[in-house]
Amino acid sequence: MDILPGKITSLVGLNGAGKSTLISLIMNFKEKDSGEVKRTTVSVMPDAETMIEDMTGEQFLKFISKLKKISKEQINLIYDLADSLFIKNDLKKKIKSYSFGMKKKISFIQAYIGEFDSYIFDEPTSGVDIESARIMMNHLINLKKRGKAILLTSHNIDEVQEFSDYIFLLKHGEIVRKGTIEEIINKEEKPIYSLKLNISNFTELVEKYCSGVEYIVADNEVEIYSNDLLKLNKIMVEMIKAGGLVISFGKEQRKLKDVIFVNE
C-alpha cells in the first residue's frame, strides 16, 4: 500500500475491517507481526475523546504546537482554522464542555498544523455539522495542493467518492479491492448507457423498438437503459425517424456506494 504525495488516499471498510489497526501500525502505536512500514514525517488526527479535557481548546492546541515544534506562523494558523470551523469564540472554554463535534474540530486542527510530509485523518467529519465537514475537506484539498500525502478514513462513501484519488477497501484486515474511483466502480462491469426521448403521440413505438432493453415511460417521455451501446444507437435513430426528440444520451454515472460492498 502506497500513500502518495499530492493525493488523497482513502481506507474504506465496515467496523472492524482493520482501518484503525492499520493507522496504529503506521504510527507505531502497535507492534506489527510482519511486514514493513516506511514513512517520513506524519501528523495524525486521533480519536476526539483522547484529548486533555481539563485544558481549554486554545491551551491544548498550543500544547500540541510545542510538541510539534511548529513556527509562530503555524501557531497563528490555529485561530484561522478555528474561525473557519466556527469555534474561534470557544477556544477559551474547557474541552470537557465541548460537544462531540467541537472536539472533532479541535482534533482536526491539531493534526492539520505543522509541516509534515504525510497527514492521517481518521473519520474527520463524523459527528460534525455539514458546513464544517465541507470546510474540513476543502482544507484537505489545500494540503493535497501543497504536495502532501493524505490518508483518510471515512464511512461517508459520497465524501470518499468526491474527494479521493485512490481507495483501498479493507475486509477482515485484508485489502480486497483497490483503485481509483473509476476503476472500482467499473471493475468487471460494462457501463450502462441511458437514452431519454420525448415520445409524444407515438407511445406504441416504444414497444416496437425497445424490445429486450429496460425502459421507463412517464407522461410523454421514455428513458431507455442498456449496456449495448450499438443497440441503443439503433433505437435512437429509429425513434428520431419517427419524430422523437432526444432529451439526453450518455453513460450512467454509478455511485461508489452502489458497488463498493457488493460481493465483498
Automatic annotation (TrEMBL):
InterPro entries linked: AAA+_ATPase, ABC_transporter-like_ATP-bd, ABC_transporter-like_CS, P-loop_NTPase
Entry annotated with the keyword Nucleotide-binding: yes
Family annotation (SUPFAM superfamilies): P-loop containing nucleoside triphosphate hydrolases
The entry's keywords: ATP-binding, Nucleotide-binding, Transport
PROSITE patterns: ABC_TRANSPORTER_1, ABC_TRANSPORTER_2
Molecular function via GO: ATP binding; ATP hydrolysis activity
Domain ABC transporter per the UniProt entry, residue ranges: 1-197
Domain of life: Bacteria
Recorded family membership: Belongs to the ABC transporter superfamily.
Entry protein name: ABC transporter, ATP-binding protein
Source species: Lactococcus lactis
